[in-house]
Known about the structure:
Layout: H1 12-22, H2 35-45, E1 48-52, H3 56-64, E2 75-80, H4 87-103
Parallel strand pairs: 1-2
Amino acid sequence: IDGVIKEMPGVWGFQDMVAVVANPSIVNYTVRSNLTDIQAAFNSRWIHGLNTQSPWKFVNEMVSKVYDQFAPVPWFIGEYGANGKTGEAILDDLRKMDLQADSA
């Protein structure tokens, strides 16, 4: 929305949320309540999320290499499709996701 992030799979939507909460007018929106309150709620409660069909190794590499700019806001995978992967490969991905979440 604000042109800060281009062609970065997985994280462009994170930046869109940051940009719009900082300045809702960039999408021609006028808030009905106090913008400072909205920004405070975003900063204290927001969690970035994404849906993916990609393997964990790819998702982790794409998000982790640029995520520092969004810290300390956490992120999660809301839907993990694992297209065409075996049950064993899916279980391996889930274990790796869990390990990373526990270390965050």
